[in-house]
Amino acid sequence: MHNKQVALLVWNMDKENDAHVYVGHVIYEDNEQYFLNDSMGWKLSLDIEQISRATPVTEKMKDIFLNADYFIPLSLSVVPDKINNGYIPTGLKW
To answer: Is the separation of the CB atoms in 65 and 8 below 8 Å?
Structure first.
């Protein structure tokens, strides 16, 4: 995915049929992978399992995925008041 546009397909688990697409790129820094979206100021850590779900975007789907070369599906939910070890802070705001 080096030098390629990557779209995150983000499913909001707290609201039925609510999905968003954000385009950016993946960088490798200090043995970690991050999704960067400059317009939103996001630097989202991605684990190897999330990276492994990257799927090439077909020509037919380019409009939906904002002309990205790959997309990665993610599910997000509101973090409960008591954060435990099962949650990863993303900095994403709905």
So the answer is: no
